TrEMBL record:
<dbReference type="InterPro" id="IPR020904">
    <property type="entry name" value="Sc_DH/Rdtase_CS"/>
</dbReference>
<feature type="domain" description="Ketoreductase">
    <location>
        <begin position="7"/>
        <end position="206"/>
    </location>
</feature>
<comment type="similarity">
    <text>Belongs to the short-chain dehydrogenases/reductases (SDR) family.</text>
</comment>
<protein>
    <submittedName>
        <fullName>SDR family oxidoreductase</fullName>
    </submittedName>
</protein>
<dbReference type="InterPro" id="IPR002347">
    <property type="entry name" value="SDR_fam"/>
</dbReference>
<keyword id="KW-0560">Oxidoreductase</keyword>
<dbReference type="GO" id="GO:0048038">
    <property type="term" value="F:quinone binding"/>
</dbReference>
<dbReference type="Pfam" id="PF13561">
    <property type="entry name" value="adh_short_C2"/>
</dbReference>
<dbReference type="GO" id="GO:0006633">
    <property type="term" value="P:fatty acid biosynthetic process"/>
</dbReference>
<dbReference type="InterPro" id="IPR036291">
    <property type="entry name" value="NAD(P)-bd_dom_sf"/>
</dbReference>
<dbReference type="GO" id="GO:0016616">
    <property type="term" value="F:oxidoreductase activity, acting on the CH-OH group of donors, NAD or NADP as acceptor"/>
</dbReference>
<dbReference type="InterPro" id="IPR057326">
    <property type="entry name" value="KR_dom"/>
</dbReference>
């Protein structure tokens, strides 16, 4: 018996590091997974990995900034995979820009994907979960949303927004049996992080590996966190074991403080 037998989960950003790890873990524990991402090829790779491991998944390419596209993903997932009662919002973007050089369109893009995209997913999936008598949802925020990022003010503000949005959604849906929480990773070894360190290394004249290692050295536990470790916390929050936990933001950061 898996923790998510006979449940259907939507995972956004499921072509990325954290989203893929969540899709794989939920499927390994019995969930049928609707894999959605703006990058069709990466989403298809995730679906193929789930199926290769004996799980059930289907791909639904979509842009989380479009309410119409997200509603279509949810409707298609219900038709193909069954009642949607679980959701993970892992789609996200980051662009490292010093505060005074952050362009207006960069601010808008970050807010659209990270904050509006999370809102649209939680609303669409929340409506279905309420209809089915309950469910659980997790949005991936960040420890950056609890503090400050002078080179990513847009990112930190969007993630602070996600933490707040999740609390509001949780309070709105609690009476319907729908729990909503956020997970705040520290530094995860994914494409997103590797891209930042390639950029930083070019500016500071070091190598991406040295730049990454220097950051890892600042983390109290002395290392970065794997996507799989983040997924374990997501799965815990989605599972019945967390039945009394809602409206919370859970750090998975090795003790790293961002402020
Ligand atoms: P990633 O780049 O590997 O994955 C992000 C995924 O989101 C990609 O597959 C991308 O195609 C998808 N995406 C981007 N824009 C989209 C859009 N408009 N519509 C649909 N999908 C879209 O990054 P990751 O590290 O796996 O990040 C996942 C989440 O975790 C993000 O929200 C990120 O902010 C958050 N996070 C990451 C870290 C880290 O250190 N990597 C730390 C804290 C929080």
């Amino acid at each position: 018996m898996g923790r998510f037998d006979d449940r259907t989960a939507i995972v956004s950003g499921a072509g990325g590091g954290i989203g893929r790890a969540c899709a794989l873990l939920l499927a390994a524990e019995g969930a049928r997974v609707a894999v959605t991402d703006i990058a069709r090829d990466r989403a298809e790779e995730t679906t193929a990995l789930v199926r290769a491991a004996g799980g059930v998944a289907a791909t639904y390419p979509a842009d989380v900034t479009s309410g119409a596209e997200i509603n279509e993903v949810v409707a298609s997932a219900e038709r193909d995979l069954g009642p949607v009662t679980l959701a993970v919002g892992a789609a996200g973007i980051i662009r490292n820009r010093p505060f005074l050089e952050l362009p207006e369109e960069g601010w808008d893009a970050t807010m659209a994907v990270n904050l509006k995209g999370t809102f649209l997913l939680l609303q669409a999936a929340g409506r279905r979960a309420r209809e089915h008598g309950g469910g659980s949802m997790v949005a991936i925020a960040s420890v950056a949303g609890r503090g400050a990022r002078p080179t990513s003010a847009d990112y930190a503000a969007s993630k602070a927004g996600v933490i707040s949005l999740v609390r509001s959604a949780a309070q709105a849906l609690a009476a319907d049996g729908v729990r909503v929480n956020s997970v705040c990773p520290g530094v995860v070894d994914t494409d997103m992080t590797r891209a930042i360190h390639r950029e930083r290394a070019a500016i500071t004249g070091t190598t991406p590996e040295k730049s990454f290692a220097a950051l890892a050295g600042q983390i109290p536990l002395g290392r970065t966190v794997s996507p799989g470790e983040v997924a374990e916390t997501v799965a815990f929050l989605l599972s019945p074991t967390a039945s009394y936990i809602t409206a919370q933001a859970v750090n998975v950061c090795g003790g790293l403080e961002m402020d």
